[in-house]
Amino acid sequence: MMTVSRWKIIAVVAAVLLSLLFAMPNVLSQSARDSLPGFLPKKGLNLGLDLQGGSQLLLEVETSALRKERVTNLVEDVRRLTNEAGIQTANIAVAGDGVLVTLPDDSRAGEVQGIISRQLISPTKSGAADKIVSRNGAQVRVNFTDEAIREVSTNAVEQSIGIIARRVDELGTREPLINRQGENRIVVQAAGESDPEKLKSLIGQTAKLTFQMVDESVSLQQAEAEGVPAGSEILVSTDRYAPAYVVKKRADVTGEMLTDARQDTDPQTGQIVVSFRMNGEGARRFAAVTSANIGKPFAIILDGKVISAPNINSAITGGSGIITGNFTVQTANELAILLRAGALPAPLKVEQQSTVSASLGAEAVDAGLISTMIAFVSVLVFMVLAYGLLFGGISVIALVVNGMMIVAAMSMTQATLTLPGIAGLILTLAVAVDANVLIYERMRDEIRAGRTPLAAADAGFSRAMLTIFDANITHLGASLIMFSLGAGPVKGFAWTLAIGVFTSVFSAVLVTQVLLAFWFRVARPKKLPIT
Question: Cα(220)–Cα(246) distance, rounded to whole angstroms?
Fold first, then answer.
């Protein structure tokens, strides 16, 4: 009789039970899932935008604004260094992608060049300098290198993708599909979010939070009439106390130092606020600034607008505080979400938006189910006609186990199932029986060569394995290439194929072998009903 190792039987039984367990939530209602005990899995398949409906945005990262900001910061850094060194300058201005420092004469131009070279030049990822400092008479020029500019733009897109993902997750949307397109564009697909405007408002805000001192050396009216002092700027206000403020350009504390932000209520006034907590560096800098400026106004700035400018009544040393403003519960919660997710390194411009309705998604699901059933029935009919009811039926049972394992694996990993993913599932079902065909045909050859049924069955499995593994490794390699180089729908298709490679080999070989061994034990056949 045909013998099978005990570990194979245990592996098949365990795989079937676990697949049933993880696939089960897909056939239960939401209320039934919620009532399951805590140790049981409750997650079903995560449907993509084309199946569930939702919103899609095509965003462009405005890297030019980021370069402008870096140059502005460079101007302030150069001004600070020359002031600390006691060097008088005639003018410090933006010049292209850099800064031009003009001195009264060339006597200290070399000293300025040296200070900037020592203090402001840092290496890029490749190790090259990020700035070039040159001198021409009484002028010193500082320019960002092309490599540094490209690196900044690339990092901005990569950071934006991560921040967008965290913001979309806060909406409760599972597994948003966020992919880079070209050099500075990002495609966002949020399944289940039917309101693209809500998605735009949450994603599109830069949410750059800074804390900057108010410049009290000049009033707003004087600054508008006579000009803004060097190192300061006028920012529009959204509070109820002033239309705008004159603030120092240099940010003392930034939103990158925040570790948490929550919608809260001020216990003293009952006003809706946003409470925040900072990391160690932020707490130290916040304590130093507030200690040195007691009694002075401290502007809280979000995306270039002053949302509050309270006076510092005492040193804030605990690393936490509150942001006041004209908040409602909803606006305070939205701001907290943005601050927790982090600030975008550069503004995002919405190039295109679209919505897929839930009804269209339902139609796609129905079409996918019908296609899958047609594919399954076609394979069933072919295998029964080609190899008989017994051997063909065993292949079909293995195929059912295969499909269940794919659904269970995707439910367990919460991989997003898209319409191309359903196509990958159908292709997997069609190809899955290839291994059975190879095994059965090898059995037929052995029977024709005069071997006994048991020997023919053993030879069919052992001698077909090399071909089966070779074909599936090639299949897996193609899936990995598509997954690594493709985007969106291609990834969904490749992921389903990759899972199907492992489940197909397992079901077609181990499941089939265990079932045939059981049949041999019970029937003890004199010949194989495959010939």
Answer: 6
Residue type, 419: L
DSSP codes joined into one string, 272-290: EEEEEEE-HHHHHHHHHHH
* Highest mean pLDDT of the ranges 231-235, 346-350, 414-418: 231-235
| Cβ contacts of 118 within 8 Å, gap of 6 or more | none
Three-state DSSP state, 517: helix
Q: How many CB atoms lie within 10 A of CB 241?
A: 11
Please give the full DSSP string across 28-65, using - where no structure is assigned.
S-HHHHHTS-TTS-----EE-HHHH-EEEEEEEE-HHH
Contact yes or no for 124/303 (Cβ under 8 A): no
Residue 151 scores a pLDDT above 70: yes
Q: Does pLDDT of 360 surpass 70?
A: no
Q: What number is the average pLDDT over the span 144-157? A: 85
CA dihedral 93, 94, 96, 99 (to 10 degrees): 70
Q: Which of 354, 389, 414 is the last residue of a domain?
A: 354
**Pair of tokens at residue 322:** 């509150």
- Give me 491's structure tokens: 């990834």
Binned at pLDDT 50, 70 and 90, residue 1 comes out as: very low
- Split at pLDDT 50, 70, 90, the class of 244 is very high
Shared domain check, 512 and 367: yes
Residue with tokens 């017994």: 390
Distance CA 293, CA 295 (A): 6
Q: Is the pTM of this model over 0.85?
A: no
The answer on 422 and 302 residing in a single domain is: no
Question: Domain count of the chain?
Answer: 3
User: Final residue of a domain: which of 285, 320, 354?
Assistant: 354
Contact 160, 186 (CB under 8 A): yes
Cα gap 190→54, rounded to integer Å: 6
CA atoms in the 13 A half-sphere facing the CB of 296: 17
Q: Is the four-CA dihedral 408, 411, 416, 422 of positive or negative sign?
A: positive
Listed in sequence order, the DSSP H helices in 342-417 are: 358-413
Helix or strand run (H / E) with residue 254: strand 253-254
Mean pLDDT of 159-167: 79
Place of tokens 């079902």: 429
From the list 371, 432, 423, 362, the residue with the least C-alpha distance to 397 is: 432
Q: Is 264 exposed, middle or buried (0-12, 13-18, 19+ CB in 10 A)?
A: middle
How far is it, in rounded angstroms, from Cα 327 to Cα 270?
A: 12
Q: What mean pLDDT is predicted for residues 413-422?
A: 76
Residue 524's contacts (CB-CB under 8 Å, 6 or more residues apart) are 1
What backbone torsions phi and psi does residue 495 show, to the nearest 5 degrees? -65, -45
1 domain-assigned: no
3-state secondary structure of 98: strand
Please state the length of the chain.
Answer: 531
User: Rounded to 5 degrees, what angle do the CA atoms 386, 392, 393 make?
Assistant: 155
SS3 187: strand
